[in-house]
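Q: Given only this backbone (315 positions), what sequence would you predict?
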């Protein structure tokens, strides 16, 4: 580790979703002078969603990306140092803790708040990977526009899939929704909206056999998992909306996690197994995963960090 590429800060926040920005707001106001690295997707998952109707304080709803601009502005106004950059490696063996940014510069911090969120899951079939970016996408809101007036398919049956199917139904001529069981996991209201939408067809008990196309998506072949029958549906795009996985890989040698990679925190706090390292937001929450719960846990992390630094005489 060369000293010329090392910077020391009091409180380092990794990630820029509702959790990271809220931690930055609270840590700034507490005088911790936080530095926040935004990661690969500044603003996090809300930047690839449409309307957010359930975040308190926005009675008319708000677009996800716009909401994250508000979060960032507020954190900056409070004095947080917000930077582009991806945490690529950590060394939590001793204080101050070390976090490498973009495989280059090392940051040293007395307290670290991990708010790295979660990322989209993929089916894991060859054709999905081969045609990724050529009609295969995990973000209807980002890429739906390119398939205006076309027929498209979406796989998944949670709130994300329902929300994205509805979004696509407004842009595309028809949406074919592939559901692996005989029911959806999505909330009742979202399911009803999907079923009430004329240009969405739901294929129950169906799995994706193959995404068909040479250079771009031309069709999807689905398999009924009860009868084994195959069906080919001509589509121009294939959207994957089957959930998320926590972005916790770089911490796995140091931080306790569950089998799915969600960081374990001490109940009722944001504390991890390492003193002075805190976790907030979707990287430690597989149950609620809402913007408002992430923001709440970001607040907890900043308060826990402040208390820790005070107790250590570092603040
Ligand atoms: P979920 O984990 O809730 O749902 C994933 C869906 O994908 C499930 O229906 C699952 O099927 C299906 N699935 C998983 N793997 C496969 C596979 N290999 N092949 C086919 N289907 C598969 O994830 P979401 O991203 O939808 O939602 C995450 C959380 O965020 C939830 O708590 C949700 O309520 C919340 N959310 C809330 C929104 C809102 O309030 N506006 C909007 C979006 C999300 P199965 O059911 O059979 O397991």
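A: Predicted residues:
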């Amino acid at each position: 580790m060369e000293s010329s590429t090392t910077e020391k800060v009091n409180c380092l926040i990794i990630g820029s979703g509702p959790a990271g920005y809220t931690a930055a707001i609270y840590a700034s106001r507490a005088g911790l002078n936080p530095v926040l690295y935004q990661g690969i997707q500044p603003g996090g998952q809300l930047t690839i969603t449409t309307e957010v109707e359930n975040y308190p304080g926005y009675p008319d709803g708000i677009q996800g990306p716009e909401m994250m601009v508000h979060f960032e502005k507020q954190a900056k106004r409070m004095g947080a140092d917000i930077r582009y950059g991806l945490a690529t490696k950590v060394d939590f063996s001793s204080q101050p803790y070390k976090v490498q940014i973009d495989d280059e510069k090392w940051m040293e911090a007395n307290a670290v708040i991990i708010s790295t969120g979660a990322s989209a899951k993929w089916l894991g079939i060859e054709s999905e990977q081969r045609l990724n970016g050529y009609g295969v996408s995990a973000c209807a809101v980002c890429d739906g526009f390119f398939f205006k007036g076309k027929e498209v398919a979406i796989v998944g049956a949670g709130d994300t899939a329902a929300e994205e199917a509805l979004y696509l139904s407004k842009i595309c001529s028809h949406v074919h929704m592939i559901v692996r069981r005989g029911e959806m996991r999505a909330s009742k209201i979202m399911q009803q909206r999907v079923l009430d939408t004329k240009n969405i067809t739901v294929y129950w008990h169906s799995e994706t056999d193959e995404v068909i196309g040479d250079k771009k998506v031309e069709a999807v072949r689905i398999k009924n998992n009860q009868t084994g029958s195959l069906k080919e549906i001509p589509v121009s795009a294939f959207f994957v909306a089957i959930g998320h996985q926590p972005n916790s890989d770089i911490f796995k040698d140091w931080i306790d996690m569950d089998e799915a990679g969600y960081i374990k925190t001490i109940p009722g706090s944001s504390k991890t197994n390492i003193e002075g390292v805190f976790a907030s937001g979707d990287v430690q929450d597989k149950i609620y995963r809402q913007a408002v719960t992430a923001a709440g846990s970001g607040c907890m992390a900043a308060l826990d960090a402040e208390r820790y630094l005070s107790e250590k005489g570092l603040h």
